[in-house]
Amino acid sequence: MKKIYFLMPYPLGEAPSQRFRFEQYLDILQKNGYQYHLSSFLDIDAWNILYKPGRHIQKAIKILSGFVRRIGDLFSMSGYEYVFIHREAAPIGPPVFEWAIAKVLRKKVIYDFDDAIWLPNTSDNNRIASSLKWHSKVSSICRWSYKVSCGNAYLADYAHQFNKNVIVNPTTIDTGSYHNRIKDQHTPTLTIGWTGTHSTIQYLDMIVPVLEKLELKYNFVFMVISNSPPSFKLRSLQYIKWSKDTEVDDLLKFNIGIMPLTDDPWAKGKCGFKALQYMSLGIPALVSPVGVNVSIVDDGMNGMICNNTNDWERAIELLINSRELNISMGIEARKKVEASYSVSSNSQNFISLFQ
User: Fold this and answer.
1) What's the predicted TM-score (pTM) here?
2) How far from the centroid of its chain's Cα atoms is residue 200's Cα?
3) What's the pLDDT at 127?
4) Residue 293 to residue 286: CA distance in whole angstroms
5) What are the counts of helices (DSSP H) followed by strands (DSSP E) for the chain?
6) Are 90 and 67 in contact (CB under 8 A)?
7) β partners of residue 259
């Protein structure tokens, strides 16, 4: 029986990148004869204080505990053929653990990432942590790995510079047992929605003027689901704090889902997860033409691609005025996810990482 040792940054079931890139495949791995062990750098207590202000001593102690845990991992993986590393073995410092696993322990490393993590991406929320990161380590880990698992072609092109065994492993949706409902578009009030974290909420800045203009003509709700409220003000704004327990129920309040992005190297590494979540629930997605978005959304069929503010205004207004179009696009959106971005459609591709 093949055995896989998973090294991941966050506790099981807490971080979207882990949940939708590999955690939802764990049962499938077992059914295909694989055993696995999971080890997170941060424990649940560390995760719960990670993005809260202050508590610097507690955070430092938790980071040190994570390094101690990783040292223990080196002595615990002797019976494992594969080591799956999601993003990095440790959030700061050089790739010491990755080097030891690949070069000293001679394990087959599967290196997985879903963002352009070789680029600095600093905000006010992560400025201190970013200064301690070792962004240049991504190329080295790619070079040492048995295979590299990338969320889209843009990331794969980067990895191909250092490793010939690169597999595009898209972020996928479990349409069978999680995102398994369809939006009822016949609601009294239309809701335009966005979901994301504090680190991506900046992308909404380009949409606020459009919504301000549309508010003068139409009655709608603009719903933001995030871990912290937005700073901008809109008459239509309704904020919901993100919760894993109500994630799908909250998304089903949307009639239209939006995913604006700026066209820059970091955004090109995004894997279209917001659009995929909307579409899997039968909600048409309006997206910027950045990176994988243009592959996920078929313009005019299951959503719309918006190149500028005029496009955003026209697309939103069109869907405000036609529930029938919302319904037809939503049906096609669900079909697209099931065919190309679902767990069931990608299972064999994921399993091939360990063959």
Assistant:
1) 0.92
2) 11
3) 54
4) 10
5) 16, 12
6) yes
7) 287
**What pLDDT, on a 0 to 100 scale, did the predictor assign at position 130?**
58
Residues 6+ apart with CB under 8 A from 185: 255, 282, 323, 326, 327, 330
Nearest residue to 91 via CA among 167, 4, 15, 3: 15
What's the confidence (pLDDT) of residue 135? 83
Q: How far apart are CA 336 and CA 338, in angstroms?
A: 6
Fill in the amino acid letter for 131. S
Q: What's the token pair of residue 81?
A: 């053929």
Q: What is the pLDDT of residue 39?
A: 98
Interhelix angle 323-340/343-351, rounded to 10 degrees, is: 20
Q: Which domain holds residue 15?
A: 2-169
Q: Return the exposure string of 7-35: e unless at least 16 CB atoms fall within 10 Å of the residue's CB, then b.
A: bbbbbeebbbbbbbbbbbbeebbeeeebe
List per-block mean pLDDT (blocks of 10 residues) for the chain, which spans 355 residues: 95 93 97 97 89 84 95 97 97 96 98 94 56 86 98 97 98 93 95 93 95 96 95 95 94 98 92 96 98 96 97 97 96 98 97 96
CATH number at residue 137: 3.40.50.2000
Are residues 302 and 285 in contact, defined by beta-carbon separation less than 8 angstroms? Answer: yes
Per the structure, the count of domains in the chain is 2
Q: Cα–Cα–Cα angle for 197, 236, 200, nearest 5°?
A: 15
Q: Is residue 278 part of a domain?
A: yes
What's the rounded Cα separation, in Å, for the pair 292 and 286? Answer: 13
